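Internal ticket - ligand job 438, iron/sulfur cluster:
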Amino acid sequence: MADLSVNLGGISSPNPFWVASAPPSNTGYQCHRAFEAGWGGVVWKTLGEAIVNVSSRYSSLDLNGNRMVGFNNIELITDRSPEVNFREIKECKERWPNHAIVVSLMTDTRESWHEYVKRSMDAGADGVELNFGCPHGMCERGMGSAVGQNPDVIETIVGWVMEVTQIPVIVKLTPNITNITYPARSARRSGANAISLINTINSITQVDLDRLCPEPYVAGKSTSGGYCGPAVKPIALNMVQQCAADPEVKLPISGIGGIQNWKDAAEFIALGATNVQVCTAIMHYGFRIVEDMIEGLNDYLDRSGMASVTELIGRAVPTIDRWENLDLNYKRIAKIDYDTCIGCNLCYIACEDGAHQAIALVDPDAEGIGEGPGRLPGKAVPKIKEDECVGCNLCSLVCPVDGCIDMIDIDTGKEPMSWTQYQERVASGDMEPIPPHQ
Ligand SMILES: Cc1cc2nc3c(=O)[nH]c(=O)nc-3n(C[C@H](O)[C@H](O)[C@H](O)COP(=O)(O)O)c2cc1C
Ligand code: SF4
Ligand code: SF4
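stdout (structure tokens):
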């Protein structure tokens, strides 16, 4: 059994799976249920001055029968009183001393930040997470993403927090910004112990075409909401990697965004996250998903010969490079496995109309292609034209049968050569420019 425990900027937890600050972390009751299910930490639903929520609050993007591929909300921070929240946080911490409880905070004045941080410490919290990320409602009042979009304001507020805190400080970033490393660098400069990302992305998920008004519907109006769930994972992974690779950030990262299973979590960790936080998947399937996450991550680490989660952190970060450093002489092409091909011809259409016309429909008997589920009397089958295939991956992505189209490496017999080297060689007369495709 691999060691799943992690330490995020001074906050330790028995495993890297934390409940993100959101509806699943709204009450002591839910916090107990989360820890009983196996979660290693909870970031409490954001506390701050009293707010009033609207009804309704959520909307989603469904795709081909899959519900909540993307999820959108216009909810504000907690609508429960600080007294009740801090009492429950204290009770939870007493009952779960080895699990991480982090209090998410969002407020405005220096005095108010001081007060909430002190109350979090008094409640026994392991750390605070500063919510500079919510992109709806609170940002109109100068908080949430309004702070996260302004590196100077981040520095000011983190500075206020650092004046009083004796527990680690995590800065939660908004993805609604051009370059995520700028606010991350601000967090670093102002002395924060870690960053967490991403919060939700500005979005409108659907328009009701009868009412001609988007969802979530509030008495004839709606507002831009925060997007999360599986659809945002690629954006979150990219931002986590950017922060992990930036020499001026150098802070532990809590990865958030679309995580549903151990594999998603492992990808975040490989790209630089120390731990992960989950919201939408819990809202969809409940706390018990963590059982499979723990088991799956443990099996993966064992299989990969890694004794701990820590060994995985950032392992894939150096493989991301600038485009100009990729090898122009590397070549892969598509290969169809006729034993599993069902003859749907989606690959043919995709390559013919959307890529490089590198798949032909051929007579299987004439080509010596054996039996398979896609073979029907008189029916042509797809065949890769190896010389035409540019290895774009499209056919393997559209193919509905897992593993049926493999992308295989081709030995070109050429030395690796990046764009930068190519430019230099052409300029120095070492080689002729590569002729364009016809
Ligand atoms: C309904 C809802 C309410 C949320 N409330 C908060 C909040 O109070 N504070 C906060 O920092 N993030 C909040 N979030 C953002 C989540 O913590 C998380 O950053 C985001 O949902 C991405 O993770 P996911 O894809 O696992 O949902 C909320 C998200 C949702 C869906
Ligand atoms: S990899 Fe791209 S170019 Fe090659 S066959 Fe598939 S779709 Fe066509
Ligand atoms: S998409 Fe896949 S299953 Fe369909 S014809 Fe092409 S290789 Fe066969």
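Auto-summary: The radius of gyration is 25 Å. The mean pLDDT is 95.
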